[in-house]
Amino acid sequence: MTDNTTVSFSSADLKEADLGLRFKMPMYGNHATGFVIRYQGKVYAYVNQCAHVPVELDWQQGEFFTATKDYLICATHGAHYEPNTGECVMGPCKGKQLKPMQVEEKGQKITVDLQSAAQYFA
Ligand code: FES
Asked: For residue 78, how far is its CA from the centre of ligand 1 (angstroms)?
């Protein structure tokens, strides 16, 4: 279910350190997307934009994790991000941050608050 301010997914569709779920954020532009991943059991949502150059992180749609499943990686120049904080720990934007969004998981449903990204697009 999607309304203007949130986007929801079924918990069963988001597996541990596996494919992320992408979503559109039309209120911030035609190409604005975000994604949600599960890491160590918890869900995290970020704007799908590298901290180095503003391109999407995933080369293959939904592929955000490294092969070893311990970092998120940008497909363009290989920046590595901590999945739980969004901090870039390796690569050209080391020390910078992905833009986190508010997300909660309740009753087998994951809900992302799209308005929590408004500050990044102001
Ligand atoms: S654009 Fe992501 S590492 Fe360069």
From this structure: 6
Q: How far is the CA of 47 from the centre of ligand 1 (A)?
A: 14
Residue 1 lies in a domain: no
pTM beyond cutoff 0.85: yes
**Residue with CA closest to ligand 1 atom 1:** 53
Please tell me the distance between residue 23's alpha carbon and the centre of ligand 1 in angstroms.
20
Number of domains, the chain: 1
Question: At which residue do the structure tokens 């934009």 appear?
Answer: 49
CATH number at residue 34: 2.102.10.10
Interval 113-122: pLDDT, tens: 999 999 999 8
Can you tell me whether residue 11 is helix, strand or coil? helix
22 sits in which H/E element: strand 21-24
Q: Which two tokens stand for residue 14?
A: 């988001």
Q: What mean pLDDT value characterizes the chain?
A: 96
pLDDT tens per residue across span 15-55 = 999 999 999 999 999 999 999 999 999 999 999 999 999 99
